[in-house]
Amino acid sequence: MADLLVVPDPRLADLTTLRIGGRPRALLECATAEAVTAAVGALDAAGVPVLVLGGGSNLVVAGGDLDVVVVAVRNSEVGYREADPGEAGPGQANPGGADSGGTGPGESVSGGIIVRAGAGLNWDDLVADTVGRGYGGLECLSGIPGSVGATPVQNVGAYGVEVAQVLHRVRWYDRGTGTDEWVLPAALGLSYRTSVLKNSDRAVVLEVEFRLDPAGRSEPIRYAELAGRLGVAPGERADPALVRRTVLELRRGKGMVLDDDDEDTWSAGSFFTNPVVREDELPTVRSRVTDRLGAEQAAQMPAFAAAGGVKLSAGWLIERAGFGKGHPSSSSPARLSTKHTLALTNRGSATADDVIALAREVRDGVREAFGVELHPEPVWVGCSI
């Protein structure tokens, strides 16, 4: 097939933002959705283990020889259209809690602009294009590494906005039935940083549609730090281009914009999700913070209403458990970022074992200090925490 390329001598360390990973059996680069479905369908029929790869930004991959064929999704077409009158908009209940905004249960939004993008397109390239055209909706998600196809799988979110709030439809290849179809957001089971597709072989995302605001208005600014930088009240909207510039500045300050010259960006992004505890567990957590750090720190501990309880800040807990920026030392192959303790970074020679050891140390330390369990955000290939 002209739109399928077999890459010689592949190494997953060259294809992941954490820069670790061994050699798969083969690497197939697919330039069209049809090539993706043909490759995955044929490999599934033959019983060959498959790793579907987008931008490689959310993977922890074992070293050595890997018994897997990598199908790299590289279709990157983009198209815009006006939404049909009365066409249903996002109907997904807000999965991220009160601090995330979003459409309420059963609500839909009519009108607007629909952008359709190939799953292999670089995510930030799409954000930049939509903002450059004067459309609002994706600006708070600027600078997030990875591909378009990964965003609904992970329900990507940042600075008070989640993909669930702007997602219109997803085209996927159902690996069980061999069906290539469009589905609405409700089929994805979207919740905080996850969906029915995460850690699952159920389907492969081929294209994604998002609903945008053509009037030059951002999504409501709900994240306090961003609102303060923009000089707006929480819940207000702003110019998407200004929001994008500000978000990129904030992310760069935390080492969260990819840079070949900055080892703090050699990571899988935020390594742990913000934990959600039951409301009746919150007093116990605060009590343990008080015992360790004092009543003032306990009163200042970030806590937000969320689906299923109260969302805490993983980064805050990690620092207060004694894991500072750059932990454990400047000579360690895997370290916490020197800019942001929520990122585990490769300082140039780290292996999956190095990253796993550091992740376990941080997870177990937070559990011991505060009784809160942290859960890793990345997908594991050939290894686990």
Shape: globular
Low-confidence stretches: 91-109
What Rg is obtained from the alpha carbons, in whole angstroms? 21 Å
CATH fold topology of the largest domain? Uridine Diphospho-n-acetylenolpyruvylglucosamine Reductase, domain 3
Number of domains: 3
Which band does the percent of strand residues land in?
Answer: 15-25%
Between the first and last Cα atoms, what is the distance in angstroms?
39 Å
Order of helices and strands: EEHEEEEEHHEEEEEHHEEHHEEHEEHE
Number of DSSP strand runs: 19
Helix content: 10-25%
Overall pLDDT level: 93
Strand order, largest beta sheet: 6-7-12-10-11
The major β-sheet equals: 5 strands, antiparallel
Please identify the structural class as seen in this structure: alpha+beta
Task: Tell me which CATH architecture of the largest domain applies here.
Answer: 2-Layer Sandwich
Number of helices: 9
What is the CATH class name of the largest domain? Alpha Beta
Enzyme class: oxidoreductase
Cofactor: FAD
Family: Belongs to the MurB family.
Pathway: Cell wall biogenesis; peptidoglycan biosynthesis
